[in-house]
Write a structure and sequence with these properties.
- This protein is α+β, with helices and mostly antiparallel strands.
- The chain has a single domain, classed as Lysozyme, CATH 1.10.530.10.
- It has six helices and two strands, in the order H-H-H-E-E-H-H-H.
- It has a two-stranded antiparallel ribbon.
- Strand 1 and strand 2 form a beta hairpin.
- Helix 1 packs across helix 2.
- It is globular.
- 35% of the residues are buried.
Length: 153
C-alpha cells in the first residue's frame, strides 16, 4: 500500500481518536506509518496492531503470537512474543491513546497542540530508545502534510 492509501485508510480513525483523546491525528498517523512500515508489517496486516503493542498480563483481548527480535545476554535472538490483536483500526488507535493517558510520564505531552510538538514530548518522555524517533515522526508529518488531519495547514 502506498503512503496516501495508508493515510486515507487510517486517517479518519486517527481523527476520531484525537477528538476524544487529545493525541493529534498527525502524530498518530505518522507514528503508525513509522512503526508498521505504512501498514505493511505482518503485525499490522494480521492483528491491526500499528504500534507494536505487546499483550501484557493486563490485556484481556485477543492475542497473536509472532516471533520478534530481542537483544538478550549480548546477542540478538528470535523469541516468540504475544501481541495485542484488534478488531479494527479505531480500536488500535483508541488503545494507543489510552496507553499514553494511563502512563504519567506522558502527561506533559498533552500540553502540546501540534503533532510535531507531541512527537518531541513523547520522545523526551522516553517512548522509544531511538534518539532520532521524534525527527523521524516529524519528517513523516511534514513530507505527507499530516498537519492537515489536525485542521492545520
Amino acid at each position: 500500500m502506498d503512503a496516501q492509501d495508508f493515510i486515507d485508510l487510517i486517517g479518519p480513525a486517527a481523527q476520531a481518536s484525537a477528538k476524544d483523546s487529545g493525541v493529534p491525528a498527525s502524530f498518530t498517523v505518522a507514528e503508525a506509518a513509522l512503526e508498521s512500515g505504512w501498514g505493511e508489517s505482518l503485525l499490522a496486516r494480521s492483528a491491526k496492531n500499528l504500534f507494536g503493542v505487546k499483550a501484557d498480563p493486563a490485556w484481556h483481548g485477543e492475542i497473536l503470537t509472532l516471533n520478534t527480535r530481542e537483544f538478550l545476554h549480548g546477542t540478538w535472538v528470535m523469541v516468540p512474543a504475544r501481541w495485542r490483536k484488534y478488531d479494527d483500526w479505531q480500536d488500535c488507535m483508541d488503545d494507543h491513546a489510552a496507553f499514553l493517558h494511563q502512563n504519567r510520564r506522558y502527561v506533559p505531552c498533552f500540553e502540546c497542540t501540534t503533532g510535531e510538538a507531541f512527537a518531541i514530548a513523547v520522545a523526551q518522555a522516553g517512548y522509544a530508545t531511538d534518539p532520532d524517533y521524534a525527527a523521524k515522526i516529524i519528517s513523516i508529518i511534514r513530507q505527507h502534510r499530516l498537519a492537515d488531519l489536525d485542521g492545520g495547514g
